Every structure is written in C-alpha cells, then in structure tokens.
C-alpha cells in the first residue's frame, strides 16, 4: 500500500466541517512538506482557525482524513496528537494565569522528562524573558504572554508547529524575536504551518502558501503564483 502522505509530514484530505447551516470547511486539501514553513492566508471567517482546530484535535466533528507523520490522527484527542509531536498556538493566549512563567512552561513539557526546568530556562533566555521566570503569567504584558505561549509549545520539542497569528498585537521588538526563533528552529528541522495576515511576513518566511475563502482551498503555491491568481485577488486582496 502506498504511503498516504509520501514525503509530507501532514496531509489533510477532503476535510469538511459545518456548524448548523454554515459550512466552515469544504473538501479542504492540505499537504505540508517536512521541513518547510508553509503559510495559510485568507479573509476573516474563511476557515483558517477551524482547519487548525481540526488538525490539532481540538475539534473532532469534521468529515475527512488527517495524517501526521505517516499515521492517521483523524478523531484523535488533542492530548494524544500533542504527545505525537504536533503542537499549536492560539489566536488568543491561553496561559495558566495564576501560575508563574516557569510553571507554565514546565506544565507543557514532555511527560517523564527530567530536564524541564533547564530547558525552560534556556528558552526564556533566548527571548530575554529569563528575569520573569517567577512572575505570574497574568502579570506579563500581552506581548510577553504571546511569546510565553510560543515557548510552551517548544517545551514538547514538536516536529510540526501550527502558529495561529502569533505576532498579532505584539510590539515590533518581540515580533522580531519570534520570527527569528521560527527561522532558527526551521533551520534545525522543525516544520511550521502559519496563519498570518501580514503579507510581508508570509513573503519573508514561507516557501509554500495555501489560500482559503469561505471554507474552500482556492489556491496553493509560491507567493508569486498566489499574487497572480484571479480567485485570490478577488477574495483576499479585493481587486
């Protein structure tokens, strides 16, 4: 039998999801090549976050198939998918507000790992947040909370990371730090799938781009082909 995902780390086949009478996803197809940084763009309400919800196991009410690292994860619980090496961030930060920064990071580590505290310290140092290790998460700035959420994802050393508008609402300095870490991790083999509205970021980071509109995948390719696609120009760029 042929491998359903070939040389791709993630494959989504014919994914559909409806909420009442609203079709959020329509036969969506996605293939993420291992080691790539792939972008996901589209107008608000086009189904981007719904797709991430399905892939990460946060929403299991879909029709279709999802394969990660050559194994089916369709219908799997989010916790099991996370442990298999697929992690994500959310549009809105979800810290444990009454826990310290260090406790937030350690809670996201691999079960049974013995070096969680040291790994957390190293990650905090990379983004110059080490002095906040004992600060409650609720007392961080919004941008710092977003960065901490990204670090929590890294605590599990995932193979594939889904980033849902990770730079939204954070200042340019923290944004630069975030994207620098994405590049560094990608150079070491981590695969990324990123929802991002800033086309300059997409142009700078992504070699491959998917475009959703009204739940349908209307285009896929490099930035130049996306820019010239009539469906994209009409749906996303408004021309």
Automatic annotation (TrEMBL):
GO terms for cellular component: plasma membrane. Residues 10-239 form the ABC transporter domain. It comes from the Bacteria. InterPro entries: AAA+_ATPase, ABC_AA/LPS_Transport, ABC_transporter-like_ATP-bd, ABC_transporter-like_CS, P-loop_NTPase. Keywords: ATP-binding, Nucleotide-binding, Transport. GO terms for molecular function: ATP binding; ATP hydrolysis activity. Pfam families: ABC_tran (PF00005). The keyword Iron does not apply. This is Branched-chain amino acid transport system ATP-binding protein/neutral amino acid transport system ATP-binding protein. It comes from Candidatus Kentrum sp. MB.
